[in-house]
């Protein structure tokens, strides 16, 4: 059977008049505490330390500016031997992208699926995306806890690394990692207030202000807030959301900086849906005559979320050009849902015949993450190279309570649905599920300058993964995930590269001896070319890739007797494979126009050559 084919096109053109805020106001850097010319006219040592410690993406020059999301090394995008894209604040503001899901809908190589009114899933290179980061610290993506609809008022930019990303993220799928870079105080005091009015009575207010908090300007703060409310093109659906964010950076010395931040958000939707509309009627005909506004929500269904997140960052630069960075992230989220799931096929004439499953679902998630890293130059064989090394720790606790209905509710016809369905009586004793996921890792990566034009990037990570839960416990330790890439600078503007990256995903399947199988191993091989053109006003890239998964659990064909725990023996086999190519063209060909263009094509098949995904092309024009 032929593999499935998927192509995604994303095109966007921004006029400079559309920008509602200067991108310079979002530069992620602070004003130096001391700027003094030395006798020979060069920058002072203090200024060099500032530049070393607090490198940031500038708004002029190449769009292939420095990002460390792929390797931990502060490389330009052209020096990074992997596909990486940056969606910056200029793009976010110009298109009024209010949530992370909005950003992902435009992001190169990402497929966004809205499952219900309040839940999203993302895919890249034929796999689901499970790896998110906040300022480089890995966190576990969970569609239930509003991660996808986080307000973009928080972010300066979003970095997307496609392919396997196990070096920095640990366990996950060989799809992509999404690194959310939060706003920091700006160089100069700046800010804005905005109000927006939209269709379906939508209102949105934003405030963003950065300012010095002391006379010496060694302590700076930035505060942002958003509030929105309104209806939807979907019948009955309403929203009311707000977010508050504050971050303070303090230069303790010319070499040391501490940054602390806190955000709190609440999302209160009404008439939330769970599950999809029926695809077929009971007579087998397609249910394609339902209106776009059709809903299965009621006047009592909801999917409310609340979250409070805090972070602490410590940075110090040494005289030998090495620096250290220590970060701690604490995230606490709650979810309160009263939902109604509809299934079966209705009658095409009456709209009757659907069955229902109501549920009240309460969940609490707590995440703690820690990262410590050191990076700097070293000399070997007459050349200067760079090294970064670090340790990471993350722990996630999720407690969920499911309350089932004690009575039966009757449904009206799907046609003319007005949501006036009787609210069920939910039981007082829940079915509780507890899960604790812990990851630990140590990694190192080096940028080796083999020649004036040849650069080798190598790295490795050793990880441990442990899951404790009501459905069983398992752990894997000493899992290695290597990284290797080679970059050749054709000239000062064009580079070609190739790379091999890995990632792992723990699994709880057992072999015939009752031993758990080793993790699924995901790998990504790619080659590409990246370049700057028109005096660095325009950048372009093209990549081809192959993604594979090995040791995927499958039923043991020889041993068909159940194990002592009632499960059946499994063996590890070669899994799914995706091949494809992608291209990007970004930049400012003129002073008035910013261009974002990308195209991605995937061929996905499983181990037997059967198609695994069929997605229609998506075209976006602005």
Description:
The protein has 622 residues and is mainly beta. It has a domain at 190-620: TonB-dependent receptor, beta-barrel domain (Maltoporin, Chain A). It is 4% helix and 53% strand. The chain contains four helices and 30 strands. The strands form five sheets. The protein has an 18-stranded antiparallel β-sheet. Strands 4-10-11-8-9 form a five-stranded mixed β-sheet. Strands 5-6-7 form a three-stranded antiparallel β-sheet, with helices on one face. A hairpin with a 4-residue loop joins strand 25 and strand 26 (538-550). The two termini are 38 Å apart.
Please tag this protein with its features:
mainly beta, 18-stranded antiparallel sheet, 30 strands, 4 helices, 53% strand, disordered N terminus, five-stranded mixed sheet, Maltoporin, Chain A
Secondary structure layout:
Layout lengths: L3 E12 L29 H9 L12 E2 L7 E2 L7 E5 H6 L5 H7 L4 E6 L2 E6 L2 E2 L2 E4 L2 E4 L14 E8 L3 H4 L6 E7 L7 E9 L3 E11 L6 E13 L6 E14 L4 E12 L34 E16 L5 E21 L11 E26 L2 E22 L26 E19 L4 E16 L4 E16 L4 E12 L14 E14 L4 E13 L1 E4 L14 E4 L3 E14 L2 E13 L17
Parallel strand pairs: 8-11
Antiparallel strand pairs: 1-30, 2-3, 4-10, 5-6, 6-7, 8-9, 10-11, 12-13, 13-14, 14-15, 15-16, 16-17, 17-18, 18-19, 19-20, 20-21, 21-22, 22-23, 23-24, 24-25, 25-26, 26-29, 27-28, 29-30
């Amino acid at each position: 059977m032929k593999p499935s084919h998927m192509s995604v096109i994303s095109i966007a053109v921004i006029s400079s008049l559309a920008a509602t805020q200067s991108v310079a106001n979002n530069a992620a850097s602070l004003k130096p505490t001391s700027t003094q010319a030395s006798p020979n006219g060069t920058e002072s040592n203090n200024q060099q330390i500032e530049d070393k410690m607090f490198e940031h993406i500038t708004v002029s020059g190449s769009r292939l500016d420095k990002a460390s999301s792929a390797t931990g090394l502060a490389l330009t995008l052209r020096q990074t031997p992997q596909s990486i894209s940056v969606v910056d604040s200029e793009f976010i503001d110009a298109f009024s992208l209010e949530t992370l899901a909005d950003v992902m809908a435009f992001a190169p190589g990402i497929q966004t699926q809205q499952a219900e009114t309040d839940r999203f899933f993302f895919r890249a290179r034929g796999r689901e995306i499970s790896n998110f980061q906040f300022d480089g610290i890995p966190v576990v993506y969970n569609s239930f806890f509003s991660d996808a609809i986080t307000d973009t008022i928080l972010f300066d930019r979003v970095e997307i690394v496609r392919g396997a990303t196990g070096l920095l993220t640990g366990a996950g799928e060989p799809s992509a990692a999404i690194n959310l870079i939060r706003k920091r105080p700006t160089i100069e005091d700046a800010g804005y207030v905005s109000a927006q009015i939209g269709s379906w009575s939508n209102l949105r207010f934003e405030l963003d202000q950065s300012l010095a908090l002391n006379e010496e300007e060694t302590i700076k703060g930035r505060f942002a807030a958003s509030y929105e409310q309104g209806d939807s093109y979907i019948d009955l659906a309403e929203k009311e959301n707000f977010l508050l964010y504050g971050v303070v950076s303090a230069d303790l010395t010319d070499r040391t900086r501490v940054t602390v931040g806190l955000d709190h958000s609440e999302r209160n939707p009404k008439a939330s849906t769970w599950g999809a509309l029926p695809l077929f009627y009971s007579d087998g005909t397609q249910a394609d005559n339902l209106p776009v506004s059709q809903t299965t929500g009621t006047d009592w269904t909801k999917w409310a979320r609340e979250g409070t997140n805090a972070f602490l960052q410590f940075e110090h630069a040494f005289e030998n050009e090495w620096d250290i960075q220590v970060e701690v992230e604490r995230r606490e989220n709650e979810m309160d849902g009263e939902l109604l799931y509809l299934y079966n096929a209705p009658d095409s004439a009456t709209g009757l015949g659907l069955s229902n499953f109501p549920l009240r679902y309460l969940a609490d998630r707590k995440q703690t993450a820690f990262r410590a890293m050191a990076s700097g130059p070293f000399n070997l064989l007459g050349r200067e190279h760079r090294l970064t090394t670090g340790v990471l720790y993350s722990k996630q606790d999720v407690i969920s309570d499911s309350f089932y209905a004690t009575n039966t509710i009757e449904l009206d016809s799907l046609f003319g649905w007005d949501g006036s369905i009787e609210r069920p009586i939910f039981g007082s004793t829940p079915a509780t599920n507890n899960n604790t996921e812990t990851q630990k890792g140590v990694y190192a990566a080096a940028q080796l300058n083999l020649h004036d034009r040849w650069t080798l990037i190598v790295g490795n990570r050793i990880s441990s993964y442990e899951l404790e839960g009501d459905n069983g416990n398992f752990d894997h330790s000493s899992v290695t995930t290597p990284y290797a890439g080679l970059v050749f600078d054709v000239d000062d503007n064009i580079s070609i590269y190739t790379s091999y990256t890995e990632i792992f995903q723990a699994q709880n399947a057992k072999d015939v001896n009752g031993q758990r199988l080793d993790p699924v191993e995901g790998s990504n091989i790619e080659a590409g070319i990246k370049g700057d053109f028109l005096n660095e006003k325009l950048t372009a890239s093209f990549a081809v890739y192959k993604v594979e998964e090995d040791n995927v659990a499958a039923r043991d064909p020889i041993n068909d007797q159940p194990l002592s725990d009632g499960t059946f023996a499994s063996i590890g086999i070669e899994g799914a494979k995706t091949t494809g190519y992608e291209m990007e063209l970004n930049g400012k060909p003129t002073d008035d126009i910013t261009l974002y263009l990308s195209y991605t094509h995937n061929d996905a098949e499983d181990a037997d050559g059967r198609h695994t995904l069929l997605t229609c092309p998506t075209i976006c024009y602005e």
